[in-house]
Amino acid sequence: MKSKLKRNFSFLIIAAIPLVFFSCYPGGVEYYSDTDIIYTNYDEDYNFYNPDTKNYFMPDTVHYASTDPDEVNRQFENDILNEIEKNLAKHGYTRLDDTTNADVFITATVTSSTYSGVGYYPGGGWWWGGYPGWGWGGYYPGYPYYGWGYAYSYTTGSVFIEMVNPDEIDHDEEEIPIVWLAAINGLLSDNSANTAARIVSTIEQAFNQPPFALKK
Amino acid sequence: MKKIKYIIVAALIAFSFNNKVSSQETSYINMTYDMSMPFGNTADYISKTSFRGYTFELGWYAAEALTIGLRFSWHTFSEDMPYDTYYDGTISLTGKQYRYINSMPLTTGIKWIMNKNGHFRPFLGAGLGAYMQNIRTDMGVYTAEIKQWHFGFYPEAGFLYEFSYGTGLLLNARYDNTLEAGGNNGHSYLTVSVGFHFGL
User: Fold this and answer.
1) In Å, how far from its chain's centre is CA A151?
2) What is the CATH code for A35-66+74-206?
3) Which of A9, A11, A24, A48 to mutate to test the interface with B (most CBs of B within 10 A)?
């Protein structure tokens, strides 16, 4: 039996080689735009198609949800506001210069968050194919490998667009009713033209979802 | 020429059944590369065939033609979904989804080996055990993951061709089936395995 074991051992080694390269999460994100997601939700009781309530007010600036002024990047502000206005106009909404006669208010908010650290994939990371080919934004090339792990640093950007119905504001409860919300999130790239194009296409997609468009 | 082929095939089959070999193995190790086709709930979530899988099996002869074995497998299914919109009530969510199922059966089973001392050994088998199934969806930079142990069972059929003393080529088909657990769906898939048999 011992000689058989010895003879079979070489076969076992050969058969085991592919297992070293086994991955439990093959494939995945290839481009920055693959990380873009567009979430929308709305109040079913609000009539978005009433022609008498289609005047809106939107401030000339985007709100930045950051306490650090250095983090605020106003580079894409016009892209965001212009795209919102363009898409609302497509659905018959008219932008007003002040709030007096506005039926709804529109606000746009931007946030960004940076995540970094070292991660590990069980079963070996070689096959993951994501390091560094994933194209994580802001990947820090000087970061060392840690065994089978990978180092990462990436920044995500989010755009929130809210439609507020001022008639339903509850001053006692201090509640502002949001009748429509779009939340857009994706990895930020260093290429500003790419980021601007993704902002435009994702905002357009938000208006291609209910209630502004039918379910597909 | 055609006749010669038939004669060779017939001779091989006859040789396989009639020639007794001296190997009287009492236990064995099987190692296979596995390809798995999803069915049922598994196919609803990921429709693509998996080409990432393997099985280790350790078995003992409990009787002349009956083995008892322990098996560990790892089968990875994955599919990159196209850019699409998903709906839930008034919620709409658009993006690309990357879906993964990692199924890891840890089972015990029996096999009925036909022609045990011949070169060509067909077999039928069945087994049951615990399956760790990890269902993961990546969307955007977010991940939703379910890790659940399921009870599962399988029937299998295949054959072994012993090409050298104690060493053989193995080909078999197995249908793994798991039951619902912890509110999570069970899964099922058909695996075709090819690999080696090492008699001990």
Assistant:
1) 22
2) 3.30.160
3) A24
